[in-house]
Amino acid sequence: MKVLVSTSTFGEFDETPLRKLKQNGFEVVVNPYGRKLQPQDSIELMRDIDGIIAGTEPLNSDILKRANRLKVISRLGVGLDNVDLTAAKQLGIHVASTPAAPTEAVAELTLGLMIVLARRVVEADHAIRNGSWKPLMGVLLAGKTLGVFGFGRIGKAVARIIKAFGETRVLGYSRSLTAEGAAEVGAEAVPLETLWRESDILTVHISSTPQTRGSIGEKEFAMMKRGVLLVNTARGPIVSEPAMIKALESGQLGGVGLDVYDIEPLPMDHPLRRFNNAILMSHRGYATEEVLTGRYDLAIKNILDFIDGKPLKLLNPEVAPKK
Q1: Can you give the residue range of the structural domain that contains 81?
Q2: CA-CA distance, 259 to 163, in Å (whole number)?
Q3: Which of 78, 80, 249, 256 has its CA 20 to 30 A from that of 285?
């Protein structure tokens, strides 16, 4: 069986996962570009592939139709917004994820971005490197109101951790969140308008779907407190980038901490690069040794279980097996 490893980080720090694949008899094709695959790259590399350990590259209907030997996709991660599950089901391609969610890793990064923004750490670092010793005034997290947009595993973890900073009020929103569910981590379940209006810091953890795209735009920014801090470690399209840039320019946003964008990698001429109060990460919220090791093992296990006929926790369970 021929397996493509499309994500460029697989085995980057430790070759053990690649050795495991080869020891189990796989012919392994690795991403030769050292970057996220573009559609034409995927079409060429997947031409005679039986399985793929996939990253965040688009796997749309056109690409999947051209991969005429493809039987199984093991997504290295939790989100599946890059995979056309309907097309995969129609084509008899099994899709499974690696649900060893990077909950703590993303939650810790989210909190780190909040601290860096609140205390203007990056701005101060740049100023000192340029010869300035002028102190930059920051704010405390203690006593602030944190709004959590999307109250799943990561949102709950952030709510739990920030309580260690003192009398911090936590507001949470998701469609299924109940007052009891929020109270488990000392938070309040509130309507969206309350979340926008009362948060001093807003963190995004909602899933990316066609319905959530652009959930935070000009109207929502206009409702927020002036100087609100925004952190997004979920998916870029949830926040309207033009509206976010406009809010940064006007001072309505006091700063942003971002790990995700509409276009990744972030283009060199992107306007976000010019803001000193925009902390930019490279979609690496999960990137800790512990999380990656667990994900790699699960990604390989998905492929092995498929070959052995063992039941997978499939994301398209009604798919007909591809012969």
Answers
A1: 2-101+287-308
A2: 23
A3: 249
